[in-house]
Design brief:
The protein has nine helices and twelve strands. By secondary structure, it is α+β, with helices and mostly antiparallel strands. The protein has a single domain, classed as 2-Layer Sandwich (HIT family, subunit A), CATH 3.30.428. The strands form two sheets. Strands 3-4-6-5-10-11-9-8-7 form a nine-stranded antiparallel β-sheet, sandwiched between helices. It has a three-stranded mixed β-sheet with strand order 1-2-12. Helix 3 packs across helix 6. It is globular, with a radius of gyration of 23 Å. The model has no long low-confidence stretch (mean pLDDT 90). Keywords: Carbohydrate metabolism, Galactose metabolism, Iron, Metal-binding, Nucleotidyltransferase, Transferase, Zinc. It holds the Pfam family GalP_UDP_tr_C. InterPro entries: GalP_UDPtransf1 (IPR001937), GalP_UDPtransf1_His-AS (IPR019779), GalP_Utransf_C (IPR005850), GalP_Utransf_N (IPR005849), HIT-like_sf (IPR036265).
Length: 379
């Protein structure tokens, strides 16, 4: 009898004919992200397929320690005409092209809320201040190439910004949240290779942060324990997803990771923000940042691109949200198989839900096998 191909494809093999047991490294499954409440579809068998998609161009990074054309180098004139001082360590200035501004009129909604337009076309004004943080005066350094003492000054700067802006928030300013982040590499849209990050201080709590706060608060109400505190203990016990750790911090490829070599850096104790950091915490954070980013560079022998961001307690929030807050950092790197093959979120990821081809355990194993010493240099 001739089998109709459509019938064959639409009718799965009966379960009693399945002889295999479930294998996390070979069978599709979903993983829940408790921070956001979303799911990740994991399809590890797809990692075996041949790749004929887009490849990133490897850009050589033979950079000088000082570039007279760089807007961020010491003593140089920026695009707006202001001149940088001849700084010798981490340096912060107000962004010349900020995403949000303080000096703008308040937005007034004129549409009644009980109309269709009022229900569907909602708008809020957003005010704030944006900063650029030059990590080093040296144009050709990246985090893994900086000394721990230099990185500690970066952490000092993060802490001071959070403290100073928080003080302003406590004295009448509209600030509610400080988002610290770094985009590294042209693959992440970074147009200037000088080592730098940004800080956006806003009068709202950003959506992703609010999702985390809601879920961490709910977890605490239901369990009387902290979500990330429990997660740290679970990962230390299971070990297989731990990339690196020290006395104060743990880095894992989270169970629910989306990006192939995504990592989550978590405080081992309840630190709500950098405001709770001791000198020991600052040094430990600098050390583990150097080890992690060095592993990234050594993975594909390239200046590994990523977007990194710090999540911590808002300046203005409920007592429940403040108590539930737990200092952590997200690293979202795009590289998939090599220095030239990048993951894209398209198709099902845009229309259905997030999806990955490499399990978190497989990715962690790759990173665990790398040492934390700099052996990739391409200046």
């Amino acid at each position: 009898m001739r089998v109709n191909r459509v019938d064959y494809l639409l009718n799965p093999i009966p379960s009693n004919q399945m002889t295999q047991s479930f294998d996390f490294t070979n069978h599709s499954h979903r993983r829940h992200n408790p921070l956001t409440g979303s799911y990740i579809l994991c399809s590890p068998h797809r990692a075996k397929r041949p790749w004929q998609g887009a490849r990133e161009e490897i850009k050589k990074m033979n950079l000088p320690s000082y570039d007279p054309k760089c807007y961020l180098c010491p003593g140089n004139i920026r695009a707006t005409g202001d001149r940088n001082p001849k700084f010798e360590a981490t340096y912060v200035f107000t962004n010349d092209y900020p995403a949000v501004k303080l000096e703008q009129p308040d937005y007034v909604e004129n549409e009644p809320k009980d109309t269709v337009k009022g229900r569907l076309l909602k708008t809020e004004g957003v005010k704030g201040k944006c900063f650029v943080i030059c990590f080093s005066p040296n144009h050709n350094l990246t985090l893994p190439l900086m000394e721990v003492a230099e990185l500690t000054k970066v952490v000092d700067t993060w802490q001071k910004l959070y403290h100073d802006l928080g003080q302003e928030a406590g004295h009448g300013s509209p600030y509610k949240y400080l988002q610290l982040f770094e985009n590294k590499g042209s693959a992440m849209g970074c147009s200037n290779p000088h080592p730098h990050g940004q800080a956006w201080c806003l009068d709202i709590v950003p959506t992703e942060v609010q999702h985390e706060l809601n879920n961490m608060s709910r977890y605490y109400r239901e369990n009387q324990t902290h979500m990330l505190g429990d997660y740290v203990q679970l990962e230390i016990k299971e070990k297989e997803r731990v990339v690196v750790q020290n006395d104060s911090f743990l880095v894992v490829v989270p169970y629910w990771a989306l990006w192939p070599f995504e990592t989550l850096l978590i405080a081992k104790e309840h630190l709500r923000s950098t405001e709770d950091f001791s000198d020991k915490h600052k040094t430990d954070l600098a050390e583990i940042l150097k080890k992690l980013t060095t592993k990234y560079d050594n993975l594909f022998n390239t200046f590994f691109p990523y977007s990194m961001g710090i999540h911590q307690a808002p300046f203005q929030c409920t007592d429940e949200e403040k108590n539930a807050s737990w200092f952590h950092m997200h690293f979202y790197p795009p590289l998939l198989r090599s220095a030239t093959v990048k993951k894209f979120c398209v198709g099902f990821e845009m229309l259905g839900e997030a999806q990955r081809d490499l399990t978190s355990e497989q990715a962690a194993g790759r990173l665990q096998d790398l040492d934390g010493d700099v052996h990739f240099l391409n200046r």
